[in-house]
Task: inverse folding
């Protein structure tokens, strides 16, 4: 899965410019584009700027989302792209893996 934050590192590599200074979480997609390689999955974490706590985590087809009560809901995005069915009770092992520090 490519993300918007992958654009800057990709353009920097294409322009033969060193990686931008500061924190850039993206990855260059040059090798994917040049050699038609598949993208590798990666963990994506969204954090709150207010308290630094995790708001959501996505890895592969799983997504964990923190609720207002600080619990997490778990969604299987292959089966439920609209994130309507919380499957945390059925997949506690996946939830624990995604939300461990």
Result:
């Amino acid at each position: 899965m490519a993300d918007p934050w992958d654009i800057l590192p990709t353009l920097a590599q294409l322009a033969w410019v060193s990686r931008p200074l500061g924190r850039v979480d993206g990855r260059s997609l040059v090798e994917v584009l040049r050699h038609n390689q598949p993208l590798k999955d990666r963990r994506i974490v969204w954090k709150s700027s207010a308290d630094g706590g995790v708001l959501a985590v996505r890895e592969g087809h799983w997504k964990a989302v923190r609720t207002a009560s600080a619990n997490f809901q778990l969604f299987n995005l292959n089966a439920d792209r609209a994130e309507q069915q919380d499957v945390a009770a059925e997949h506690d092992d996946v939830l624990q893996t995604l939300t461990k520090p």
